[in-house]
Amino acid sequence: MKMRAAVLDGVGSKFQVRELDLDKPKSKELLVKVAASGLCASDLNAIDGKRKLVPFPAVIGHEAAGVIVELGADTPGFAVGDHVIMSIVPHCDTCDYCKSERPNYCSTAGDAMSVGGLFDGTSRLTHNGEKVNHFLTVASFAEYVVVPASGAVVISKEMPLDRAALISCAVLTGYGAVMNTAKVRPGSRVGVFGCGGVGLNIIQGARLAGATTIIAIDLTEEKLAIARKLGATHTINATSCAPEVEVGKICGGLDYAFEALGRESTIQSAWASVDVDGGLILVGLMKNGATLTLDAGPFVNEQWIKGCYFGSANLKRDVEKLVKSYLDGSLFLDELISERIDLESLDLAFDRLRAGQGARNVLVFD
Ligand SMILES: [Zn+2]
Ligand SMILES: [Zn+2]
Question: Which of 8, 254, 281, 284 could covalently link to 261 via disulfide, CB atoms 3.0 to 4.6 Å apart?
Fold first, then answer.
């Protein structure tokens, strides 16, 4: 079929809206009409070349929700008309990681992503007969996508699809970092360094986990104001202060410091804010090949550091829980969307993300 998509020809290039050919779904794949796709820092990392995530030319975008229009063979549990969120963690069920119950590290999916394909390594996207690559098996800056069924989760039709899109990456990552990676205990002191799409969801995860002190740290008052709505009890504008000093004044030190930017200086500041027995969770992705220098002194106080990928999420279980939480009013998503945009406005919207303005920009289709 023919459809419109925003194609990126290389690192640093502008988006080109082109009419592409999209092949039919193969076995264990779904054809989905995209309703919404959030603009995430991982998209920006691919555009700016901070991380090497996909060969070009490629259709990027990965935080998506839509409606199934066609089923490939062997797709039990899905029906045409189902609403789904699509994620970057499809799984093959046969590799060593899948068999050891770590499907988020599926090596078949990893291999497919590195060549810009789906699970068989091939692409369903072409432009004038030339291959175009899929980003992280989703490629959702497009009217339609073909995705692995194992990366999709059927959701309630009551759930608005633009807000559902956010669940598929930013919310799962932030909420999961709190609930699954760190397992934050009620009554804890939590600090969140960087209040972008993921950081704001760490804040609301901390609220839902029962943390009693939740400190949001960012450089913009706009994001700190949203952080307060989502559950921050205190905010620190780090433009002209050392956040670790301010954290000390507020609560002595943190039980959990989450870093959501992937910057060495912020990680050092987060590490300096941790109290004895507390930990630093690295949620923000650093540039390929980056190194870190940290004060080793706190290890004697049993302070710890943990990495985090995709909020250690259990895709199906966590998506169902989050949709239910939105519908019962306990998960806040409306506050997270700062702009709804079209395919032609992606460059401008990524400029806003690069500048740290606003919360989430979401590409929406009619
Ligand atoms: Zn993302
Ligand atoms: Zn696998």
Answer: 284
> Does residue 356 have a pLDDT over 90?
no
Give 101 Cα–ligand 2 centroid separation in angstroms.
9
Q: What is the pLDDT of residues 59-81, one digit of tens each?
A: 999 999 999 999 999 999 999 99
The Å distance, Cα 301 to ligand 1 centre, comes to 34
- Give the chain's count of helices (H) and strands (E): 11, 18
Domains of the chain, residue spans: 2-155+333-364, 171-310
CA 162 to CA 34: how far, in whole Å?
Answer: 10
Closest ligand, as measured to the CA of 284 = 1
Name the CATH topology of 2-155+333-364. Answer: Quinone Oxidoreductase; Chain A, domain 1 (3.90.180)
pLDDT for residue 248: 98
Ligand 2 mean position to 94 CA, how many Å? 5
Ligand nearest to the CA of 311: 1
253 CA to centre of ligand 1 in angstroms: 30
**CA 76–ligand 2 middle distance (angstroms):** 18
| pLDDT tens-digit series, residues 302-341 | 999 999 999 999 999 999 999 999 999 999 999 999 999 9
Query: What 8-state DSSP symbol labels residue 3?
Result: E
CA of 96 to the centre of ligand 2 (A): 7
36 has which bridge partners? 65, 364
Distance between CA 45 and CA 47 in Å, rounded? 6
31-40 pLDDT, tens digit each: 999 999 999 9
Nearest ligand (C-alpha, residue 111): 2
Give the Å distance between the CA of 22 and the centre of ligand 2. 25
Through-space distance between the first and last CA atoms of the chain, rounded to whole angstroms: 18
Closest ligand to 136 CA? Answer: 1
| pTM, entire model | 0.94
